[in-house]
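User: For a benchmark we're assembling, each entry needs the component sequences followed by a predicted structure for the full assembly. Here are entry 17's components. Please fill in the structure.
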Amino acid sequence: MTNTATLVCRNLWKLYGPEPERFLAKHGPSPTEAALRSAGLVSAVADASLSIERGEIFVIMGLSGSGKSTLVRCLSRLIEPTGGEVLFEGVDLLRASPADLIELRRHKMGMVFQHFALLPHLSVLDNVAFPLEIRGLGRSEREKPAREMIELVGLQGREHNLPYQLSGGQQQRVGIARSLITDPDVWFLDEPFSALDPLIRREMQNEFMRLQDQLHKTIVFITHDFEEAVRVGDRIAIMREGRIVQVGTPEELVRAPDNDYVAEFTRDAPRSKIFSARSIMRAPRTGEAVAGVIPAASKVRDFAAKVEASELPFGVANEAGEQIGVVDRRAVMSILVGAGEPA
Amino acid sequence: MTAAAVETKIPASAEWMRPGRVAVLLFAVLSLVAFLLPDGVLPAWTRQLPAEFRIGLDTWISAALKWLVEDATFGLFTFKDLTRGFAQLLNVPLDIATSILSTGLLDGRGSSAIQLAPPLPWIAVVGVVAALGYRFGGSKLALLAGGAFLYLAVFGQWASAMLTLSSIVVAAPLGIAVGLATGVAGYRVPLLRRIITPILDLMQTVPTFAYLIPILFLFGFGPVAAMIATMIYAAPPMVRVTMAALEGVPREIVEYGTMAGTTPRQMITKVMLPAARPQLLVGVNQVIMLSLNMVIIASMIGAGGLGFDVLTSLRRLDIGRGLEAGLAIVVLAIALDRLSQAYAAGARKRDAEGGLKPFLFGLAAFVAVTYLLALFVPPIATYPEALQISTAPFWTDAVKWINVNFFNVFDAVKTFILLNLLLPVKRFMMAQPWPLVAAMVGYAGWRLGGARLAALVVGLALFPVVTGQWDYTMMTVYLCGISVVVAALIGIPIGIYGGLSPRAWRVIEPAIDTLQTLPSFVYLIPAVMLFRVGDFTAMLAIVLYAVAPSVRYAAHGIRNVPTMLMEAGTSMGCTQKQSLRHIQVPVALPTILLGINQTVMLALSMLVITALVGTRDLGQQVYMALTKADTGKGLVAGLCVAAIAIIADRLIGAAAQKLAAQRSGAVDAT
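Assistant: Structure for entry 17:
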């Protein structure tokens, strides 16, 4: 738990069934599955511990029913967790009073919903300005930032449309603009693109990455789509039956899945988009000639063609420009073909 | 289907052995025996409990109300002060509405009053209504609504119609506001909701007349009392709609409201109510229509207007005047219904188009101009009498002509049905001893819904017994039962036909829509016109009023038979007739049952109104209590009607549910 963590949860539980609080009080922070079963309890979130760093995109991935939606709602306290701790910027969220929570949500949290959740009676402009309106800001005070946000998400000209007049992608742009207008410290996105067509989804993912490049928010991103998780996530937590089964960068998950369940997801992962030069390089042989230099962080997909076309390997350089290894044709091929572990 | 199929495979001999069949047979035999036994064989207590076993609920209620009105005090003020103050408070908006629409601003009371300012000219009202029609639904609706109001002016119904309308424009918004507030409270506080729901159930089954009596007692005779009754009667659906609409707001929208940091109050006013507006507007339409229904009935406790015209003409058997006023009610009802429906349907679209301010400004300007013009040009102020057309003589002549030429036919039909259907059934029902009826009802409840349902329906069936209303109750069951059977026999085939043929439905649907829009009072007029007073007339009016849901549900059920089943039938070589008989009707049966259930509810509410044509059932008890302001008696009789309604509702509902479950294979038939 480093001091840059924005959002931390420890031993977080959400149990359904008879007297769940008493059960947790009796059995401590990590009761066994057998104890849960015999008490007749069902866990939607079981013993979840996470630490989300400032400025990272943290993806929670799981199939439907895995508890990812419940977990994100426990983190934002939309759902009251049964037990555990949630620390948001060092404040214990579960002890916050209703008034404190309202303040926190008005200023420090933003959320985007799967089905957009736009207020059907308000225009685009009023929807985006709504968080400011309930804070009591006057019309002119709230419309100026709202117009800026609308421009940011590329909806200028649509200010006076009602939600039903917009396409799904446009509606989610409104949802995004609205959630960002308060300049939140943590940004929750609950399957934001799942309800969109595949083409629009891709476009929105790009748009989202573009926004994040500008804004550097701390993001909790929920998805059921591993490919999307890999595309947008800095780190990914995989959930199954309420439990977090593994947390890691996309590369870590693909390279070393902790169990068969994770391996099942990563098997068909687009490896060339996941592995970087750093992770497939080998130590250079003494006096080995190189055809050029590749940055350590760039992905296989981006340099595969030129390495493949070259007889000589390429050098791999870290941020300081020092050569730290080489990438050769064989390493690239093994990623592209997907045969076993890279060297 | 599978369960039903299994059932029919049981050999006929075994079928008769099943305990259910045996019990039904046993009850049938007992009923018949009770009917055939000469008078006096069954002990008297099986028809009427001796006084010492009865509960004097009626005298208690009357005494309690008497105490409230005469003695109750809150220290600083008495209960009577409270009701009086309440009435005075509500009189203010009603006075304003009446002044604007009907009487003008008056100084003083009664005939010595001096008019300080005239009411809105008729042209202004017609124009406003047409403009609203145009805004809500385009030129077609403008024509319909404007035309309807023009009709009121041309046919000499203006004054009464405006009096009725002024009650509605006050009662409906108040009813909506009260309903909305109660609904929100019920949504927010689960405990309150658990209290409200059964009260709403009861309020919707207690007949309209029964409302009037305590109101009459507390608030006296007059327009304000009538308006309060209207408001109380019309508010319950709004409470229900509000709770359901708030419940129906998508979870994500509520979550968004929370995440945006709304206070609980902002959550309701800025997020949930606006998001639920389309559903809430459906409730608004219902409140308006119920207000109209009740304001007509409330003419019995002093609401003037069209209802009063109908009532007086009915009492004098002045068919022409009654029909004229009745038609005016029909026209007003259709206009209000279409306007409020269009308002609800188009709300979102209008939001998108905007332009509310110029519209309102234009409307205000139009009203101001016509008002000023009317001060100098009398025909603009009031529709000139010379141009009025009275249809009353025409209707009177028409009815006279019918009666002269067809009296024998009508009378023969009436006598035949009376002698061969109504009277035998009546005698049969009146012969049933209460222990047997309670046992039958309880057995049905047990078979259909288990011990709890059985206990409920037996308890309800005993209510009329212990309050000494058994004979009147059985009289009610007889009239209501026959009417429902007739309505179902007419309505279900029409509905099935409408469900099969979309072309027929295009004719049937507007017809039953209109039937359902009209205030119950109106149905008495044609029935009385042709058949004078009596049970047959009452039955006719009830059937007319109650037939619509049978038609609607049957059509709905037939239309919703899964295409898959129909295709299966066709591929097995069913003829059209066979697939109707073996597939469509059986599958639609649960829905058809629900339609019958609605028909029962409407029949009971109409039954009470038919007391005006001289029935002798619970309705008459309520009506007589109303004329004597006997609150206890009226409420007890009203509660007996409610007991019948709830028994029917629960039993039919349970039957439909059981059938539907069997159809989907969820319940084992054995």
